[in-house]
Amino acid sequence: MGLTLTEKILAAKAGRPAVQPGEFVTARLDGVMAYQSFVSAVEHGLAADIPGGVPRVWDPDRFYLMVEHNEPATSRIQAERQKRLREIAGTLRVKHFYDVTCGICHQIMADDALVAPGELVVGTDSHSVLYGAFGALGTGIGETEAVYAVTFGELWFQVPESIRVELVGTPPPWPVAKDVMLYLAGRYGLEWAQYRALEFGGPGLAHLSLDARMTLADHAVELGAKFGVAEPDETVLAYVRARTDRRFAPAYPDPDAQYRETVTVDLGAVPPLVAAPHSFDNVFPVDELAGVRIDQAVIGSCANGRFEDLAAAARILKGHRVDRHVRLLVSPASWGVYRQCLEAGLPQIFLDAGAQFLDPGCGVCVGYRGYLADGEVCLTATTRNYAGRMGSPRAQIYLADPATVAISALKGAIADPREVW
């Protein structure tokens, strides 16, 4: 019996010819990413009488530590944590330490090719599933797991069942990956992929950019998935090889691989969708919510803060002004994406349209920037829309793709981007 892509990678990392869903394996890691929460991990280690909190780093070339989520510091508490993180980086002699000019941790991992096809990489954030866009396995871990992972370079996993998402057709001209994931959530629910792997493949995948594939993998966790992974093709291989000279071994599913189920998504048939408060699976076609007034619009995060997303929004905004009752916040995912935007002249377009072009980071996604007041309504191309995610629990958060957010910011209410594409 053949293996899925997830099973192939886990078997390789466990040093076994094959694994089956439900089995527990100890797997060798190819990388560990951590950010400010690693301070708590070290403190837990100290409380357990572990010298230094973390006795050693198993491989200095495979540990990536970042000042992230709150950069620059937004409070005294965050400033103290960042200071402590710098001390820890110095004590552990961390080779890959990213300070405040990095951006969102997952985008940094992508920008610098710190994850490659066939690898198994974990991070102290649930959206570490994004690494699957590169044909790797990525998943989030807790603080105490991080100490073990950094020390020994391995973790145990239960082999998940795999669900194949067969992508067919040609995508529309706007960034459709968000709509694909909203479609899956709306149809199958948030428990559909609980501790399972979502594997993206099919002829439609070749039509999607790496930016789009990162959105697919990133949102896999919103459907409960342990992993979200796309089959690597020449686009992925060329991207990674241009950014790193380390060796890696791409993996691919066997033709006779056994999946829990296979679903087919026609990229050309997925309309713009919107998730209404307060759940990722509370999904409606955009025309059913058209006219809902908004106070704030946001484009950014590890879900939709890449160049393709911002360029689509700029195309809609160019030559127009944001509705005077709407605050439009645009935040690139990393300093690398920020530079792409500068070179393409996007900041000028956003500023001319009356938007705020912010520094890279997670702030707009988790309410550190653009905090919502009671009763306010936000349409956002970020990750989640549960109550209180972006400020007041009495605010209303709607999720949509970047093009829908941009046209809605101009109209002052939820609108359909197809009228301008």
Find the CATH superfamily of the largest domain: Aconitase, domain 3
Instruction: Specify the biggest β-sheet.
Output: 5 strands, parallel
The beta-strand count equals 18
Give the fraction of residues assigned to helices.
25-40%
Question: What gap, in angstroms, lies between the N and C termini?
Answer: 46 Å
- The low-pLDDT segments are none
Name some characteristics of this structure.
single chain; 421 residues; alpha/beta; Aconitase, domain 3; 2 domains; five-stranded parallel β-sheet; 15 helices; 31% helix; globular
Describe this structure in words.
The chain has helices at 5-14, 38-47, 76-91, 105-111, 143-152, 177-188, 210-218, 234-241, 286-289, 301-304, 307-317, 335-344, 346-352, 363-366, 402-411; strands at residues 24-28, 31-34, 63-66, 96-98, 120-123, 137-140, 154-158, 161-168, 196-201, 227-230, 261-266, 273-275, 283-285, 296-299, 327-330, 356-357, 377-381, 396-399. The strands form 5 sheets. The chain has a 5-stranded parallel sheet with strand order 4-3-2-5-6. With 421 residues, the chain is an alpha/beta fold. It is built from 15 helices and 18 strands. The longest helix has 16 residues, at 76-91. The chain folds into 2 domains: 5-266, Aconitase, domain 3; 275-419, 2-Layer Sandwich (Aconitase, domain 3), CATH 3.30.499. The protein is 31% helix and 19% strand.
